[in-house]
TrEMBL record:
InterPro entries: IS1634_transpos
Swiss-Prot/TrEMBL keywords: Coiled coil
Coiled-coil ranges per UniProt: 341-368
Name by which UniProt lists this protein: Mobile element protein
Record bears the keyword Coiled coil: yes
Length: 460
């Protein structure tokens, strides 16, 4: 604790700044600084007020400097400007607008409406001077120069430079995700805006889907934007074709590449297509190798420790998927097990509470009449998709004299045990027989944790 202490010396008061702390149970003085008499303190205050001073302000510049350095290394602005047909006028070019937007979004969530305020507070405002405002309409005008063909040309040039700098991909990670939007599509003019399975459970909103492939350094190699109502497994075939085409353009042999993808892309056709062009590591759904989940953890071997400090264990075997036998590794992460178990119990408790509330409302004579269909819809809204094999229900027609159907529900214990066996585990299969178990296990990638959790970790 810091406080002022007055001491009387020869009858005159003098002031000290003192800090006291408890040491071994006793209060002791940690330090003591002499300030002087009250008159001396007042004199020092007046001197400070009369002295000229500069107001200093600090700026974060590390991330900005790194991004500007990458821009210079790749020649990003020049590449964008080379492929956009814009007249030379005073102000920012399309490439500069795009880079500014990227830098702003790398510092946090930022809309085009808010970029001018961010720019004024950023050290980049000392380096870039221009006569016009950074309003939303200006940004939209610049983005109109970048269509899908232009984006492909920009991507082609950037990938070519990356390969020249030695960043030839040997492993490629592919994943898809979607963003819901409040934009409507009443006239059906937009090819992209459609309703579909949304990862944020916003099935009431139109969405846009994106597929992204990155190399082992998390550097994007190719992307594809596609309609919100197209399933990921259908789009996967198209992104594989684009990867192969780009590799061919860059004189890279696709047979030397390993493609890593998630279980949402699984299908017999997709697996056969990938195998015909390159090697792969894929993730399997639990019901594709259910018997492997029964292998006791005592047969798992330690593989590695992940970035969160969790130990990863693995069990290696062979298993048949889509009519072909592959090397299969089941990984186990106790940290993930605990998280999934906790999340499961929390969601299960919420669902049961909501079903019990619905049950009470249906048993009550109060309220308006309900039909079977309305109850069915409400139950479907309550029971999350992942719980529909675990929490079963039955809707009983309204008894005589009642105006509402009755609800009966229960937990299927066998299916619950089957579900719990998957917690903390990931099933991987590959044609890379020569790969060590650790390499296969560690190639399981958190793509939608890395970019699609809105999406800060990749250099988009």
């Amino acid at each position: 604790m810091v406080f002022l202490r007055k001491k009387l010396i020869k009858g005159k008061p003098y002031w000290y700044i003192v800090e006291a702390a408890r040491v071994n149970g006793k209060v002791k003085t940690v330090f003591q600084i002499y300030l002087g008499s009250a008159e001396k303190i007042l004199e020092m205050k007046k001197q400070c007020e009369s002295m000229p001073y500069d107001k200093l302000k600090s700026f974060e510049y590390g991330k900005l400097a790194a991004l500007l350095h990458v821009n210079e290394e790749l020649g990003f602005i020049d590449i964008v400007n080379r492929h956009t047909d814009k007249k030379l006028i005073d102000g920012l070019s399309v490439g500069e607008y795009l880079l500014l937007d990227i830098i702003g979004k790398c510092h946090g969530i930022l809309s085009e409406n808010g970029i001018e305020d961010w720019f004024k507070k950023s050290p980049i405002s000392f380096m870039w001077k221009f006569p016009h405002k950074l309003n939303c309409q200006n940004f939209l005008n610049q983005m109109s120069y970048i269509d899908s063909d232009t984006m492909k040309k920009i991507e082609d040039d950037l990938c070519r430079i990356l390969v020249e700098k030695g960043l030839t991909p040997s492993i490629m990670f592919v994943d898809e995700s979607n963003w819901f939007t409040h934009a409507t599509n009443y006239d059906e003019k937009s090819e992209l805006l459609h309703k579909g399975y949304n990862k944020k459970h916003r099935k009431d909103k139109n969405q846009i889907c994106v597929s992204l492939a990155v190399n082992e350094n998390n550097i994007p190699f190719i992307h594809e934007t596609y309609p919100g109502n197209v399933p990921d497994s259908e789009e996967f075939s198209g992104i594989v074709d684009k990867i192969i085409n780009r590799l061919t353009e860059l004189n890279i042999c696709s047979e030397d590449l390993v493609l890593v993808f998630d279980k949402g892309n699984n299908s017999k056709d997709n697996i056969e297509k990938v195998i015909s062009k390159m090697s792969f590591v894929g993730a399997a759904k639990a019901n594709q190798a259910e018997e492997l989940l029964d292998v006791p953890l005592s047969r798992y071997n330690y593989l590695y420790k992940n970035t969160k400090g969790n130990e990863i264990f693995g069990y290696r075997t062979k298993h048949q998927f889509y009519g072909t036998e592959f090397i299969t590794v089941i990984t186990y992460n106790e940290g993930t097990y605990k998280l999934q178990k906790s999340t499961y119990e929390t969601n299960k408790s919420k669902i049961i509470d909501q079903l019990q509330d619905l049950q009470r409302r249906l048993e009550s004579s109060k309220g308006k009449e309900r039909n079977r269909s309305s109850v069915e819809n409400e139950v479907a809204e309550i029971i999350l998709k992942k719980f529909r094999t675990v929490i079963k229900y039955e809707i009983i027609e309204a008894p005589e004299g009642k105006k509402k159907p009755q609800l009966k529900f229960w937990v299927d214990e066998e299916n619950e045990k089957r579900c719990e066996k998957t917690f903390g585990k990931n099933i991987l299969f590959t044609d890379k027989q020569e790969w060590h178990t650790k390499k296969i296990g560690s190639s399981s990638f958190p793509v939608d944790k890395m970019i699609f959790n809105s999406k800060p970790n990749w250099f988009l």
